[in-house]
Design brief:
The structure holds 2 protein chains of 2 kinds.
Chain A (H helix, E strand, L loop, with lengths): L1 H4 L14 E11 L2 E13 L4 E15 L10 E17 L2 E12 L2 E14 L4 E14 L17 E17 L2 E14 L7 E2 L3 E2 L5 E15 L4 E13 L12 E12 L4 E12 L34 E13 L16 E11 L6 E11 L1
Chain B lengths: L3 H19 L24 H14 L17
The chains are: A mainly beta, B mainly alpha.
Chain lengths: 372, 77
């Protein structure tokens, strides 16, 4: 999961079996923010057990920033470009990967490097995978004086993040698979938004160190008689400030559950129904300043930190989604379109319900994966 | 840097691996893998979708580990 998040698709736990290209687009629309994200990903098998993966994506983000806690209700568009390149190598039952990702926007630059090592054993029914990565981020602000986090002489703030994850996947029977995994990340640097203001308190000042942990369990089963698949996921998250106990400013605890039902509607058409819920408490240093304007006054919270970031508050989100996947075999007999007969097309729509000030969002995604 | 709960999880995972190795027969033979290759049985079937979800949930929830959202100047995260 760590390396998929870094955009390094090549580092999946399973060996790649085909040369393929994936084109995908996502549209996210909530009351104050719209995101359009096209992405293209190309995978290629090479001789001697090697394979490579490259991707490029663009995030076009249009936002009216008031909902994010700033005091100016100005609409702006920000473009983020991201490229990634990864290489994998298979030896018998072992797979190793290494990948790099670079993300750039007008005021935020990020370098990500990740690697993984996975081994299959016990008749190829068990997989243990270790993944590690780091992210080195640099950020600046366009319309404010040099922030406290700025490092001389350039005036940029930095955020260094280090990740590790370990997963164990076990085939339990011909129709049951289970997985457990754990992840840990250590973040050191500015972890907020350089433009976000806390009313009456100036720019936000989040804690500079954070140790983030998560454990997750997943199980999947398949019912051949009805061609139905079912997945259940559960994840528990917690974080802390190393060495700051008992007055820890973080202490977020979160539970996330997700259920997926896959149903074959015909030989080539499949529907996936998804439902996700996320619950979290607020960070210890966070308070809802819109409800309680004096909560950050001296003495009310015994911590030197402030933030108006809604995602650090108590949150409950729900996300139902429906997705259709079509294996385009039928195009095999259609002139010209037969070139796409090995492709899989997908389209999905979901509604993201948020309990905080961001409001609810429509999420539309479409994509195609085609061997070449 | 590891917390006690992290170490407990690691020990539990290693115990599970060791227990698996003590059995003689794997639970599934190669000719019984027909359904395991299906999309519904894979947890990493769509990494590009996972990539988008990580970025999205990292920007809207406080429980991402922080690696899914390289960006922040836009005021939307």
């Amino acid at each position: 999961m760590i390396l998929a998040a870094l955009g390094l698709c090549v580092v999946g736990m399973e060996a790649r079996g085909a040369d393929q290209v994936t084109i995908r687009g996502a549209y996210y629309r909530e009351p104050s923010t719209r995101v359009i994200q096209p992405v293209v990903d190309i995978q290629k098998d090479l001789p001697h057990g090697f394979d490579i993966d490259a991707h490029y994506l663009v995030d076009a983000i249009t936002s009216a920033s008031a909902a994010a806690g700033t005091t100016k209700d100005s609409i702006f568009t920000e473009i983020r470009n991201e490229v990634g390149l990864g290489v994998g190598k298979n030896w018998d039952r072992t797979r190793a990967t290494l990948g790099y990702r670079y993300s750039a926007e007008s005021d935020y630059w990020s370098h990500g490097l990740g690697g993984s090592l996975a081994g299959r054993f016990w008749g190829d029914t068990a997989t243990v995978a270790l993944s590690m990565g780091l992210s080195l981020d640099t950020m600046s602000s366009r319309d404010r004086p040099a922030p406290e986090c700025a490092v001389a002489p350039h005036g940029y703030c930095t955020l260094n993040s280090y990740f590790a994850g370990l997963s164990y996947t076990q085939v339990l029977s011909p129709t049951w698979v289970a997985q457990v995994d754990g992840e840990v990340a250590y973040l050191d640097g500015f972890q907020g938004n350089l433009y976000r203001l806390v009313p009456g308190r100036g720019y936000e000042k989040p804690p500079s160190e954070r140790l983030r942990d998560a454990v997750a369990g997943r199980i999947a089963t398949y019912f051949p008689s009805s061609a139905t698949g079912l997945q259940l996921h559960y994840r528990f998250y917690w974080d802390l400030y190393p060495g700051q106990q008992p007055s820890d400013p973080w202490l977020i605890r979160a539970h996330t559950i997700e259920a997926r039902v896959y149903q074959k509607l015909s030989r080539s058409l499949e529907v996936r129904l998804l439902y996700r819920q996320h619950f979290q408490n607020h960070a210890a240093f966070w308070c809802d300043i819109t409800v309680n304007p004096s909560c950050y006054q001296a003495g009310v919270l015994p911590l030197p930190y402030t933030s108006a970031d809604p995602k650090l508050g108590p949150i409950h989100t729900e996300y139902p989604e429906v997705k259709l996947l079509w294996d385009a075999d039928r195009l095999r007999t259609v002139p010209f379109l037969r070139w796409f007969s090995a492709a899989t097309f997908e389209i999905s729509y979901g509604y993201y319900v948020q309990s905080d000030s961001f409001g609810s969002a429509h999420v539309l995604q479409a994509g195609a994966t085609m061997p070449y | 840097m590891a917390s006690p709960s992290w170490r407990a999880w690691l020990v539990a995972a290693l115990a599970l691996v060791a227990a698996a190795g003590c059995a003689h027969e794997p639970p599934v033979q190669p000719w019984q893998r027909e359904h395991l290759a299906k999309r519904a049985m894979r947890f990493d079937a769509d990494p590009t979708e996972d990539h988008f979800r990580q970025h999205w949930f990292g920007a809207r929830e406080g429980a991402d580990l922080g690696f899914g959202q390289p960006g922040g100047g836009c005021g939307c995260n």
